[in-house]
């Protein structure tokens, strides 16, 4: 498998065309490496070797392997770096702060007082009606999801 977008910086890493990358893992489906500007020390990205823009273009087999390797990298981070916690982050689209449109999972070791700070708002102000409307819309959409063995 090779990444096919010549303009994608992550495809360049897959092709081993980036001499500055700090790669930590590679197999026939994924590559894991440090981003050039990590949020914390040990911050690692796990990407599919095929160019997949976002989660909506992700197939089940690639998702399964990406999840398996993300879990393995998380355990390796815990063993090697002994963080106080860990975030797994996967963002899709500009509104969600995706800046490289090649699917990637952030494995971010966290330490009390690190520079990353809190990632959730301290509180929100949605009305019960707004929550009910969103719940009903999502419930209807979820009823269309095929069983996992389909």
From TrEMBL:
Molecular function per GO: hydrolase activity
Domain HIT: 9-117
Alphabetically ordered keywords of this record: Hydrolase
Stored InterPro entries: Histidine_triad_HIT, HIT-like, HIT-like_sf
Pfam families to which the protein is assigned, alphabetical: HIT
SUPFAM superfamilies referenced in this protein's UniProt entry, alphabetically: HIT-like (SSF54197)
Record-level GO BP terms: nucleotide metabolic process
Protein name: HIT family hydrolase, diadenosine tetraphosphate hydrolase
Organism of this sequence: Mycobacterium lentiflavum
